[in-house]
Amino acid sequence: MPASLKLFSATTPNGRKVHVYLEELKAAYGNIDYDVEKINISTNVQKEPWFIKMNPNGRIPTLIDLSRGPRDGLDGFPVFESAAILLYLAQTKDVEKKFWFDPSDVENYSELLQWIFFAHGGVGPMQGQANHFIKFAPEDVPYGKKRYLEETKRLYGVLEIRLKDRDWLVGPGRGKYSLADINVYPWVAAYPFILDSVDEWPALKAWLARNAARPAVEAGFKVATA
């Protein structure tokens, strides 16, 4: 029987955050089944009409929930934008709220959203631009390198402040491993693209190690590599 979820993805930080959550859900519930179609973004296949029909923004990851039934010429309900996919999976699959908080838990749920949006509007785009100018730009642009590297480091400093006396970004006490961590971890884990180390931020470094030690995180980083 085919899986009810189909993910179009690649081994980018945005792809990996969804891979990790799906693997965490599999480990926690045992009944989560999904298929992955690897998208080679270097060929711009994600800009082709068949993909744009699923995701008008032409980017990965994109999820199709086949259990919702066909619609608009697609086999199921499409979800794009990585953070939106995480929240959709939380609402539809994480029924025991193992990795998120009930919206009625106003403060914890709000903090969850705050740190998700912080990553989605901050660390992700800033570090993505730093990666581009330092590693991939066809010409040397010193201003671009400095601007985005310094902003990425500033945002790491924000995470350091939050994690100084905590294990995880959100939740009472020392926190609870949640979508907030899953959403930002693959970006910060990619720091070797632009930095030699994260020793400058010891709490962040320890948080990276805690994430990396989770079996589902390791499994999620292997998705879409075949």
Counting DSSP E segments of at least 2 residues, the number of strands comes to 4
Arithmetic mean of pLDDT: 95
Q: Report the oligomer.
A: single chain
Give me the strand/helix succession: EHEHEEHHHHHH
Measure the end-to-end span: 22 Å
How many helix segments?
8
Shape: globular
Describe the largest sheet: 4 strands, mixed
Task: Tell me the helix content.
Answer: 40-55%
The share of residues in extended strands comes to 5-15%
* Major sheet: arrangement of strands: 2-1-3-4
Question: What would you say this structure looks like, in words?
Answer:
The chain has 226 residues and is α+β, with helices and mostly antiparallel strands. It contains eight helices and four strands, in the order E-H-E-H-E-E-H-H-H-H-H-H. A four-stranded mixed beta sheet has the order 2-1-3-4, covered by helices on one side. Helix 1 links the parallel strand 1 (5-9) and strand 2. Helix 1 (13-29) runs parallel beside helix 3, helix 1 packs across helix 8 and helix 5 crosses helix 7. The longest helix is centred in the middle third of the chain and has 31 residues, at 106-136. The mean pLDDT is 95.
Write the layout of secondary structure elements.
Blueprint: E1 5-9, H1 13-29, E2 34-38, H2 49-54, E3 62-65, E4 77-80, H3 82-93, H4 106-136, H5 142-163, H6 179-188, H7 202-212, H8 215-222
Parallel strand pairs: 1-2
Antiparallel strand pairs: 1-3, 3-4
